[in-house]
Specification:
Number of domains: 2
Low-confidence stretches: 372-378
CATH architecture of the largest domain: 3-Layer(aba) Sandwich
Largest sheet: 7 strands, mixed
Distance between the termini: 45 Å
Radius of gyration: 23 Å
Strand content: 15-25%
Strand order of the largest sheet: 2-3-1-4-7-6-5
Shape: elongated
CATH topology of the largest domain: Rossmann fold
Helix content: 25-40%
Structural class: alpha/beta
CATH superfamily of the largest domain: Vaccinia Virus protein VP39
Mean pLDDT: 93
Length: 378
């Protein structure tokens, strides 16, 4: 299997896969390759917090021309993987001197699948680009083509708890990865003073409670496979449910906008943590923590989709807030605005390069202890 992720989260995902029992693990670019049985495939989709999708190879062949690609693809016994009444989609990733257009490669294989069924049954299954029963992925590397099945279906960041979004919502997989990278011990208080739609708060609560990130999802791609084992899936879900912890450390979120807090409230209720996560309407400059120590993680505006009147001033005030209100805390800021991030004007103890979609960002950690609050002039 191959579990895909964001740049910078590969090692976090590797550790997750290792703890789940994956074998022969290899770290790739934005992905982890590993081996396991059907139970591990199901568990990985349910429990991996930093995986975007999990795909599994079914065929490999060589081709250097569109005609050869079609002939090799039409010869695969597609009836082993889908039937006439199921919809399918084809997505291609191409790094090749022989093929330079991913959509053309996907189209040729789509035609090959349709013709395979038409030749055999005089009928063909339908294509559904948005919500197919069976997702087929092609990796083209030079003349080598690997055909894989998407075991996840919809991307795994679609956890199922977000019914409303703010203007610049954070990706759930990225949020979970940031919480795991922070080293939060799941005991100390957790604060996000610019919580937006509540993604960091929910992902932190899921991590602390051992709540599987995709427990709320209604459907996975593997449930449409011909070898789907419903009893095995039920056993995995039941076992995961029995391991959920009900007691959580204090988790707090605030935001300056009442409408945003309302959105966060609904998302948190959907996730089932409305009793454990406490929200307030507050400017982060005025927010004072109720505890003498803990972990703060926040994702302030980048001045990209969510505009700020004074983005540099906002980040400068964030640093001032850390110095004045968070002595004893480990504060983390993730931002895609690297210049504004410097205006925090504190020396980070850690810097981790991450991407939010196509935006290069940095996760900076600041140890706010007495005697170590020196300003740096950058």
């Amino acid at each position: 299997m191959v579990a895909k992720t964001f740049f910078g989260l590969e090692e976090v995902l590797r550790k997750e896969v290792e703890e789940m029992g994956g074998k022969n693990i290899k770290v790739l670019n934005r992905a982890i390759e590993f081996e396991g049985d059907l139970a591990l495939m199901y568990s990985a989709n349910l429990k991996l917090r930093t995986a975007l999708s999990i795909i599994t190879p079914i065929h490999e062949f060589k081709a250097t021309t569109p005609e050869e690609l079609y002939e090799r693809a039409v010869g695969i016994d597609w009836g082993r993987y889908l039937n006439l009444h199921q919809t399918f989609s084809v997505h291609a990733v191409v790094h090749s001197q022989y093929f330079n257009h991913s959509q053309y490669v996907a189209l040729k294989v789509k035609d090959a699948i349709a013709d395979h069924f038409r030749n055999k049954y005089n009928e063909r299954p339908n294509v559904d680009k948005k919500d197919a029963d069976i997702g087929i992925v092609l990796y083209v590397n030079s003349d080598s083509i690997t055909v894989l099945l998407d075991t996840s279906g919809k991307a795994l960041f679609q956890r199922g708890y977000k019914t409303q979004l703010t203007q610049a919502p954070m990706n759930e997989v990225l949020a979970a990865g940031i919480v795991l990278l922070s080293g939060w011990n799941k005991i100390d208080p957790f604060i996000d003073p610019m919580c937006g739609s509540g993604t960091l708060l929910v992902e932190a609560a899921m991590i602390a409670s051992n709540f599987p990130p995709n427990m709320l999802r209604k459907r996975f791609g593997f449930q449409n496979f011909k070898n789907y084992d419903a009893l095995l899936w039920k056993q995995i879900v039941d076992q995961a449910t029995s391991q959920i912890k009900r007691e959580l450390p204090p988790i707090y979120g605030s935001d300056i906008c009442p409408d945003v807090i309302q959105i966060a409230t609904e998302n948190i209720q959907n996730a089932g943590f409305n009793k454990q996560i406490k929200l307030t309407v507050s400017d982060f400059r005025d927010y004072v923590p109720l505890h003498p120590s803990g972990v703060l993680i926040t994702n302030p505006p980048y001045d990209e989709r969510l505009k700020s009147d004074d983005i540099n001033g906002l980040y400068s005030d964030l640093g001032t807030s850390f110095k004045n209100n968070y002595v004893g805390f480990h504060c983390w800021v993730f931002s895609g605005n690297l210049n504004a991030l410097k205006k925090v004007a504190l020396k980070p103890s850690q810097k981790i390069k991450l991407y939010n979609g196509s935006i290069e960002g940095s996760l900076n950690g600041f140890e706010m202890y007495e005697g170590s609050k020196k300003l740096v002039h950058e």
